[in-house]
Structure formats: C-alpha cells, structure tokens
Specification:
The chain is of the alpha+beta class. It has four helices and six strands, in the order αααββαββββ. The longest helix has 19 residues.
C-alpha cells in the first residue's frame, strides 16, 4: 500500500472526529440525513480542508537553508541561446540583451537599468541551470529560475 493510502487512512478518523465534535460548534451525529447533507456541502468541505491544511502544513513543510549544489561560475560562461520573444536592451547586464519571460520581468529590467544604486544585473536564463525551490502560499513545492541577480 502506498504512503498516500496510509496517510488517507490515518486522516479519515481525524476528519470524522472533527466533523462530529468541532465543525458545527457542538457535538453532532454524522449519521442523520440532515448532517449527511450538511457535511457534503461546499462550505463544510472548505472549512474541513482549510482547518486540516493549516494543521498539517507545519508537519509536512520543512524549512531548509539554501545549499549551493555546484561550484559558482561566471554568468559570462552561459552559452548563447535562441529566444523568440521580445527582448530588452540594457547596458548593465553581462548579456547583450535581457530575455524576459513576461512583462513584469521586462518592467523590472527597465527599473534595474534606470536605478542609480544598481551597477549590474542579469536575468538568469534557464540554460544557466540555476533554480530555487520554495513553497507557495498553499505549501506547494515550486522551483524557479526566474531570478534577476547581481552579476
């Protein structure tokens, strides 16, 4: 049996207990037609999922210090690559152009180029192989290589 099934089997009694003793502000019998209808509603699902997600998040998400997995290397060693979307010309980057993935990144490059306290910056292309793992607001694991950084 997979871990997913084991986790589900462990959660079912806890969810049943939550619905029977806490979700409705007082103990209720889950076997009545009224309660079966109530617990199958979108509101009951939302409250249950939100409550359990909040309680479990600290148990399933582990904070870690970032670790550099490979030795550093100069951005100038990034091989040339084709880019079919609009680019932005900037003098403060090691590359001849900034290759933004979206308008926000393009506007950020313009901001960095115009900022008097920024000497250099680079939009790291995926070819550079730099990623950062992080969790989003819903505790989903994500990775990104869309980081502008000092050269």
């Amino acid at each position: 049996m997979s871990n997913c099934h084991l986790s589900f089997a462990a959660l079912v009694p806890k969810i049943r207990e939550f619905l029977a003793t806490r979700a409705f502000g007082e103990p209720v019998s889950l076997d009545t037609p009224t309660m079966i209808k109530a617990i199958s509603s979108n509101v009951a699902s939302y409250v249950t999922i939100t409550t359990f997600a909040k309680a479990l998040r600290s148990l399933v998400v582990e904070e870690k210090e970032p670790v550099l997995e490979i030795a550093g290397r100069p951005l100038s060693e990034t091989p040339s690559f084709p880019f079919g979307r609009p680019t932005h010309t900037a003098a403060k980057t090691v590359y001849n152009l900034v290759a933004p993935d979206n308008d926000f990144e393009r506007r950020f490059a313009v901001f960095l180029e115009d900022a008097s306290d920024v000497e250099r910056f680079a939009k790291l292309p995926s070819q550079f192989g730099f990623v950062i793992e992080y969790t989003d607001n819903a505790a989903n694991l994500r990775t990104t290589s869309r980081i502008s950084s000092p050269c």
